[in-house]
Amino acid sequence: MAPSWQAEAQATLFGGIKGEELEKLLVCMDSTRKKYRRQEMILSEEEIPDRIGIVLEGSVIAEKDCEICWMHIGKVLSVCPAACPCHQQMLRNLVTSLAGKNVAFSEKITCLSRRSTREKLLSYLSETAKKEKKRHFVIPFNRQELADYLCVDRSAMSAELSKLRREGVLDYKRSEFWLL
């Protein structure tokens, strides 16, 4: 029985590629699936991979059970002899995804280059407001995750948020923020 490629179809890399085309593409890419248990090593620093991995379920570092689709790097990065449209679509999706990650890393570097916790917070929150095109928005982090993202101490960040609220700069409730 042929494997079901339902999980792969949900991956951004395969956007716009459906059904039989996706199956053919994954066979062409010499794809394999592997499940990993919680805390299991997915790839060590010493390993030089010849495959690219796409997390289908779970998260990397195997914080919980996960499943990864492995594809041969050479086959992903070169156009197959058949020059199939689905392979070209996948390459476009890959470039779009990498460009998006590059923008996100640049934004993070801008925030992290600030000296104080206050400056990092204001940089992140104002950039988020600008992206959302509104002064009221929800961030995708809880307090600890935001502190980790900004590379600051959580209690110092919480104290700075309280100070900004008292000063009338912003208001917040959990992950919801209002820039005043």
From TrEMBL:
One of its GO terms (molecular function) is DNA binding. Residues 115-180 form the HTH crp-type domain. PROSITE patterns: HTH_CRP_2 (PS51063). It holds the Pfam family HTH_Crp_2. One of its GO terms (biological process) is regulation of DNA-templated transcription. Keywords: DNA-binding, Transcription, Transcription regulation. The keyword Ribosomal protein does not apply. This is Crp/Fnr family transcriptional regulator. It comes from Mordavella massiliensis. The lineage of its organism: Bacteria, Bacillati, Bacillota, Clostridia, Eubacteriales.
